[in-house]
Design goal:
With 150 residues, this protein is mainly alpha-helical. It has four helices and two strands; from the N terminus they run αααββα.
Length: 150
């Protein structure tokens, strides 16, 4: 138990030194609190975006597909990697009953949208919009909610 006694002695000595220099102690406490807060915020974001499954039925079955084009030569402009609608139809037909396919766009720039929440003149809000093919919401098991004015 000598290691435990040594630990207590070291802790008492550390607290005495901290009491002796209040400016250093204040800077230490502030730095530690900011660092702990930043780490907590980062973990919360990672947990919400990457660790938890999506709130849809069978999220483990979702698969993202994209093209990766190599440039024709170094410095060449990147090639378009978007799916065409005929390609989606062909892939959907080829998958048959083995998979359900839908397409969606990546997030675009901020755009103005007006959400009618029942107020006389709703103000436009800036939102990022995505387009999704007609069957996408049904495949995901997500239902659009209609808001009526009150």
């Amino acid at each position: 138990m000598s290691w435990l006694e040594s630990l207590f002695q070291d802790a008492r000595f550390g607290f005495r030194m901290l009491r002796k220099e209040p400016a250093v102690t204040s800077a230490l406490v502030l730095s530690l609190s900011l660092a702990i807060g930043a780490c907590t915020a980062a973990f919360s974001l990672i947990d919400a975006l990457m660790l938890r499954p999506l709130p849809v039925p069978h999220p483990e079955a979702l698969v993202g597909v994209s093209f990766q084009h190599k440039p024709a030569f170094p410095g060449a402009p990147p090639r378009d990697d978007r799916f065409s609608y005929p390609f989606l139809q062909h892939a959907r037909d080829a998958a048959g009953v083995q998979a359900q396919l839908f397409a969606m766009t990546v997030w675009g720039p901020l755009q103005s949208a007006v959400f009618n929440d029942g107020t006389p003149a709703p103000a436009p809000e800036k939102v990022r919009m995505q387009w999704i093919s007609g069957n996408g919401l049904a495949i995901l098991g997500v239902h659009a909610r209609q808001v009526t004015g009150g």
